[in-house]
Automatic annotation (TrEMBL):
One of its GO terms (molecular function) is transcription cis-regulatory region binding. It is found in: Nucleus. Residues 17-38, 46-62, 396-411 have a biased composition (Low complexity). It comes from Monosporascus ibericus. Residues 1-86, 382-445 are annotated as: Disordered. This is Transcription factor domain-containing protein.
Length: 603
């Protein structure tokens, strides 16, 4: 068995022994079926090909068919690998609350997931949602997947409770049972990864990505939700920073062994919604990974080839809750790669030319033109195998052909709208970090972007955020002569470029932070830009710090995910580190994330 596919223990860590080490209930893989939990995923529990995307409307499921021969699950339609009719032994006798049966837990959890959680996985709530699960067909879905959805829904619901909410003994018992759901799901994944005939199957990949998604969004919250003692709380807080990495790298290894994303979605186009989630998490995770991390080179090199999966592959990103414009998403992938080679002197020329290319692409990207193209966007197709537009994107120009929406006479040298900052001097040597500044008014009215135009606002926000991320990691943090930036564009004004981007980003985020409704519907779409804005706040910039911290906490509670709240802790750590840095210096992006537990935020 490949070492990269080692089973995970009950907390998501890679196990070093057989898949029978969780919770003290062990057995070998050859245990008799009489000792195995009844909740198994076998051929008697067929799963719809659309459901494995995951979830779909009942009509979409029925359109797929019932799998052929009697007794043969249609999971076989997903993968040529047979589904085992046995699972490893886990918790053999789960206590069932007297007032809340397991069936009720499942029904309540899936119903809540459909109504309150699945909508957060797509960008526009009125679009078709392939992540919903039909309650009518719940018995045809693998139990492992049901367990993951129920635990995710419970964690989401806990975020909606008032801080002074009193938990009854029945509720506490239910929470403990749902925690056991998660343990059982992890045990089932362990078993699949331990078996050669299932470790790379579609169903296993589906479960690993679902674990990844649920861990990225809410694992820290488990420490709050389940009152099982101080030791357990500390364990769960640590696993919040490590579970997701184990799941991410496990999914990456399965994808590599399967021949890549192109091979997977070619054989099974219904997997595109899941692959889109994986791609987004993978790219966003690299932004908060230090360039020296053991997985950074592999991840960023793999991402360079994502576009080869099929034409327009990054348009699918627009349908999920990280709708970075496709041109900017490709640019972000390139920035991550350039960061990964930033300490390799032999690749210095490649990095410098790549940095110039990135800045040129960012300046030429036209938010207004992209927003116009997006007016016909309809989200996921009802078949679940791609996205659709009302009309073809005729006459769409590439980023390099686009021009800034303002007339040349009204534009700053950066390609961004002209601001009140006037820095006309160019530093062709080592650039100091520009002075920190707070936008003049952090209110909803401070943004010039019409709130009614969602896509324009998103385009402006992501362009500003990626510009700042690029400037910080590829220019200001590197101790080298900056003359290479001006070889092709001698009039480039780096100081103004950064200050304009910062002001635009903060102003565009203000309406999102203004109330709970906006935080819920719009906040979920711009996690990465919010974090970048916080990383730009200086140690003495208390107004901007408070603006970002309060905004992230509001978004976290409104969206039902601990991610934004955990991001506040990370940002406060960065602000404290900057405050302790020698005068005139700052803690670089790499310096802060090096040596810290793996952290992901951006989805």
């Amino acid at each position: 068995m490949p070492t990269s596919l080692l089973p995970l223990d009950a907390n998501g860590y890679g196990a070093t022994s057989s898949p029978s080490s969780s919770s003290g209930n062990s057995s070998s893989s050859g245990s008799s079926s009489a000792n195995r939990p009844s909740q198994c995923c076998d051929e008697a529990e067929p799963v719809s090909a659309v459901a494995a995307a995951p979830g779909a409307s009942t009509a979409a499921r029925e359109a797929v068919g019932d799998g052929g021969s009697p007794g043969r699950g249609i999971l076989a339609r997903l993968s040529p690998d047979p589904v085992p009719d046995e699972v490893r032994t886990g918790i053999t006798s789960d206590p069932v609350p007297s007032l809340y049966t397991e069936a009720q837990i499942i029904f309540d959890g899936i119903n809540y997931f459909n109504e309150r959680v699945s909508g957060d996985l797509i960008s526009i709530s009125t679009h078709f949602n392939p992540y919903q699960v039909s309650l009518r067909r719940i018995d045809t879905i693998p139990r492992i997947y049901v367990s993951l959805l129920v635990t995710t829904a419970t964690l989401h619901r806990s975020m909606q409770l008032d801080d002074h909410f009193a938990r009854s003994s029945a509720l506490v018992q239910r929470e403990e049972d749902i925690f056991r759901f998660r343990i059982r799901a992890l045990q089932d994944v362990n078993y699949r990864l331990s078996k050669k005939d299932t470790q790379t199957s579609d169903s296993t990949l589906m479960c690993v990505i679902c674990l990844l998604l649920s861990t990225v969004s809410s694992s820290v919250l488990a420490a709050i939700t389940f009152p099982l003692g101080a030791d357990y709380v500390m364990q769960m807080q640590q696993s919040a920073y490590t579970d997701w990495r184990a799941h991410l790298e496990g999914a990456r290894r399965i994808i590599q062994l399967r021949g890549g994303i192109k091979e997977i979605i070619t054989k099974n186009p219904y997997f595109k919604p899941l692959m889109t989630l994986f791609v987004c998490i993978d790219v966003m995770a690299a932004t908060t990974t230090p360039s020296t991390h053991e997985y950074m080179a592999v991840a960023t090199s793999m991402a360079l080839h994502y576009w080869e999966a099929e034409p327009g592959i990054f348009q699918s990103n627009l349908a999920v809750s990280s709708p970075c414009p496709e041109e900017l998403f490709q640019t972000l992938i390139l920035v991550n790669y350039l960061r990964s080679i930033s300490r390799k002197d032999r690749l210095k020329s490649r990095r410098q030319s790549g940095t110039r290319m990135v800045l040129k692409k960012l300046r030429s990207f036209n938010p207004a033109e992209w927003a116009t193209r997006m007016k016909g966007f309809k989200g996921w197709k009802k078949t679940g195998d791609g996205v659709e537009f009302d009309t073809p994107l005729r006459g769409a120009r590439s980023p390099s052909e686009s021009q800034s929406p303002e007339p040349a006479s009204q534009r700053g040298q950066t390609g961004f709208p002209a601001s009140d900052h006037h820095h006309h001097h160019h530093q062709h040597s080592n650039l100091p970090s520009p002075p920190y500044g707070t936008p003049p008014s952090l209110t909803a009215k401070s943004s010039d972007i019409p709130e009614s135009d969602l896509w324009l606002n998103i385009a402006v926000i992501y362009r500003a955020a990626i510009t700042l991320y690029t400037m910080r990691t590829l220019v200001l943090d590197l101790r080298e002569d900056k003359a290479f930036l001006y070889e092709e564009e001698p009039d480039l004004d780096i100081i103004t470029l950064r200050l304009d981007a910062r002001q635009q980003l903060a102003a565009a985020l203000a309406p999102i932070f203004s109330d709970r409704a906006s935080a819920r519907t719009l906040g979920k779409l711009v996690f990465f830009p919010m974090f970048v804005c916080g990383m730009e706040a200086g140690p003495n910039d208390r107004d901007l710090q408070d603006f970002i911290a309060n905004g992230l906490e509001r978004v976290g509670h409104a969206c039902g995910t601990f991610g934004p709240i955990g991001a506040v802790d990370e940002l406060r750590g960065k602000w404290a580190a900057d405050a302790q840095a020698p005068k005139g210096t700052h803690v670089t992006w790499d310096e802060y994330f090096e040596g810290r537990p793996d952290f992901v935020f951006g989805f």
